[in-house]
Amino acid sequence: MRKPKITIIGGGTGIPVILNSLRHQNVDITAIVTVADDGGSSGELRTAMQMTPPGDLRNVLVAMSDMPKLYEQVFQYRFNENDGPLSGHPLGNLIIAGIAEMQGSTFNAIQLLRRFFHVTGKIYPASEEALTLHAVFKDGHEVVGESKIADYQGMIDHVFVTNSYNDQTPQASPKVVDAIMESEMIVLGPGSLFTSILPNLVIPEIRQALLETPAEVAYVCNIMTQYGETEHFSDADHVAVLNRHLGQDVIDTVLVNIDPVPQAYMNSNQFDEYLVQVEHDFEALSQQAKRVISANFLRLENGGAFHDGELVVEELMTLIRSRGL
Q1: For residue 247, is it left (φ>0), alpha (ψ between -120 and 50) or beta?
Q2: Label partner for 229 (CA 20 to 30 A): which of 2, 194, 210, 323?
């Protein structure tokens, strides 16, 4: 029997949690990964080599691979702060950069590394070109660059992307649109709303594909609000922003965590960008999406609140089965 096709769209540290659990299911997985990161090691490499940033792709590779733990530790090793030009660079980022130069593109590099690390599923950068994220705030001010958005005090009205190194309209990588159109389910997130999820969706070809796909479109809502992005947001506010950027109500299903994060649990030093737990507005959610799945998706670890990948995937698979797939 043909495996159901599920495509996950996002970036950051959110989607690897879901991908790592989903790869153990009998499904055909595709990950579409943001290429708008311009901070840290990824930012330095994209500037030096005019390449798509490798960091989010690196984390997705690890999440979808059955590589031994030692290989993962080597690939994820980060040079320490007194290592001169190598300071702060994960070894995996340098490997991706080197293979991208050798193979002619980051897209080709990821396809080679997929085979090298026995990755379950397909991984595509959202675009073959590095993208620059622009945030326009409610007061009309525009901030250019993903890493600078949280520094401006204000509410974001909308975001858009441009090619970083030419004036052409941003285009989706090969096979990205086909993956969206051929999927039974599209999963957005979890992850930073304006800087991990939306940079993919505002690429015109991806946006159009999401409007046309027959797939179930599910959104895994964030557990915590995020400094500089979603302060004071309810779960319904998150969905409203997604639908507004897409141009119509595209989200079919919203997965919402209802398990409370214990008061004073969050390590505010280590996770200083996360503020308070996202509030619920089920009435507004029901007006924007066909169904809301509210359950315990919470995993508390090392002073942080994360999604439990196994619990989220369990609900996604139930949803897939309910569609007769």
Answers
A1: left
A2: 210
Full domain range(s) for residue 22: 5-37+122-322
Structure-token pair, residue 41: 């090691």
Three-state DSSP at 160 gives strand
Both structure tokens of 21: 């659990």
Alpha-carbon distances, residue 138 vs 157, 159, 234 (angstroms):
5, 11, 18
Fill in the amino acid letter for 92.
Answer: G
Domain count of the chain?
Answer: 1
Residue 134 within a domain: yes
Task: List pLDDT tens digits, range 62-81.
Answer: 999 999 999 999 999 999 99
Q: What is the pTM of this model?
A: 0.96
CATH number at residue 280: 3.40.50.10680
Q: Helix H segments across 31-90?
A: 40-49, 55-63, 69-76
116-159 pLDDT tens trace: 999 989 999 999 999 999 999 999 999 999 999 999 999 999 99
Tell me the pairing of strands 274-277 and 253-257: unpaired
286 in a domain, yes or no? yes
Q: Is residue 108 domain-resident?
A: no
- Residue 28: inside a domain: yes
